[in-house]
Amino acid sequence: MAQAINNWQMDQKADLSEPKAKPKYISTFRALSGYIKEHRLTFILFIACTLVAIAAELLQPYLVKIAIDDNLMTGKNDYRSLLVICLIYLGLSVSAFVFAYLQNNLLQKAGQSIVASIRKRLFAHITKLSMSYFDRVPSGSLITHVSSDTEAINQFFNQVVLSIFRDGLTLTFILVLMFQLDAQLTLYCLILLPIIAGIAIAFRSYMRTTYQMARTRLSRLVAFVAENLSGMNIIQIFHQQEEQKKQFREKNDSYFQANIREIRTNVLFNRSFEVLNNLAIAFVTWLGGQAVLGKTLEFGVLYAFITYIRLFFQPINTITQQWNTLQSATVAINRIWSILAIEPEVRDKPLALTVDKDRIAGRLDFNGITFAYPEGTTVIRELDLHVRPGEMVGIVGTTGAGKSSLISLLCRFYDVKEGSILIDGYDIRDIAQHDLHRIVGLVQQEPYLYSGTVLDNVRMFDAGISREAVIRACEFIGADTIIERMKDGYDTRLSERGSGLSAGERQLISFARIIVFAPRILILDEATANLDSHTEQLVQSALERVSVGRTTLVIAHRLSTIMGADRILVMSKGRIVEEGTHEELLRLGGYYDELYKHSQGQQATIEAG
Ligand SMILES: Nc1ncnc2c1ncn2[C@@H]1O[C@H](COP(=O)(O)OP(=O)(O)OP(=O)(O)O)[C@@H](O)[C@H]1O
């Protein structure tokens, strides 16, 4: 695999030297070469079966020629030989069927398993890319890469490779047999070749444009649907259905038009080929018929010739049709390989530290950190923060102050531009990410649940964590009664993103996750926002239990969540502007005091209402 990416990268570098980049067919083959080598035995068997299937197919007209010229036209009445010929014909038909079946299956098997491993590799790679990549690339286009681009590679094997071998070999065999039957007549037929090539080339460039247009419009449509699905609640709440329907209709219509254009071009090309085929047959019948009448050509030879000419056009037509597939596979492979070649911006150092989370006390030091998103303005400025092991720190601040960004840096979704973040004195850039993510746990405002059971979601599909451990964790945070009330208890299947559960229930499951994975440092990003007061109480008491003995950072809009924190930080424009306990900050009479009064006012209004 590494070799395949290497080959591809070298080809890309070589291509840069060319002013006008040509379609990268060679690099496509080089990119796939590693995979093909893995299946070389299957490919050898495929070629062998193809040879036998084609030979069995093409020898059939030759047998009929023998029957006509050596039996029927001689008047020998040799029924026995005729029967033998018919039996051999039958045998050839059966062999052609069996070997064509094997040939198809072998190629399908190799092609499908290559595509499955590319898909697996691509998905695994995407999951390792840094958040900055996902900020830039829309998820819709990534879905296209994993689904339709890999499908284009599948078609490459099952159409292009199949056609190159099957149709290429068929053409060669037909030419050999035709020359063997009558060289002069074959040469006459070959006059048609430049005409066929001319038509194919003329159509080819037009077909390429129509094909690419259809693919581009399809990926726009897919991206649009993906975006809409992920933001369906917003669309409904803002009554955007009509507007989205209009935009969808436009994209759908434009894809429809592109498809129609592509189909028309294909039909025109196929029909032109058929006309050409019939012309060639008329041409051979005219020339060959005269020779038969003049007794310079046997009738059986003419029969075989006409059959071969008919068979000759089919593979040419099929091969030319593969141009589209080859084009799309080339584009798809280049797109996939360009993703595979992307190095995650945040990655482990070659000798990354292995840190056992149980030996971490949980001290945190943010030393003069500065951070800006790629192509963005600075959102954290020379920030210093030192947190004791087991301390609970609440973070509040204006919207866009950089609270979530600070947390993203601690999780190493991004790397700081300046300064450093230390956990127990280890720079987080030196710690293996696998270990870091066991040390630092994150609960977000909208916890992500996967399609799977409650059990799977709590233990994150890690079968090494026992059912009992999951149940204990849920009991600990008080989620057990809620889960037991569900249809199948811990085995209840959750729909995508846990949409069948309330926000509080989802939050409790994510707390149970934390208990199971027991990180030393816990981050809660607005974990109690959007909850009704009863669920908030449940979650709040779960939070208190979860945070015991852990360094905890809580970002909160509701001050009630953090009033009891050991320390509260107020952030503004990427800096810490106030710091202290609840009481200290109230005494300070600054932003926090204002926020508190405001929240008290709101509370009073709610109670009065
Ligand atoms: N992925 C991103 N790419 C570029 N800019 C971003 C990204 N995420 C956040 N920002 C910008 O960084 C700044 C800080 O955002 P951040 O989410 O850290 O603030 P916050 O204090 O958590 O705000 P809120 O309370 O509204 O969630 C904002 O100006 C925001 O627009």
UniProtKB/TrEMBL annotation:
Annotated signal peptide: none
Keywords from the UniProt entry: ATP-binding, Cell membrane, Membrane, Nucleotide-binding, Transmembrane, Transmembrane helix, Transport
Residue span(s) of domain ABC transporter: 364-598
Localisation: Cell membrane
Keyword Lipid biosynthesis: no
Ranges where the ABC transmembrane type-1 domain occurs: 44-328
The protein's name in its UniProt record: ABC transporter ATP-binding protein/permease
Organism: Paenibacillus soyae
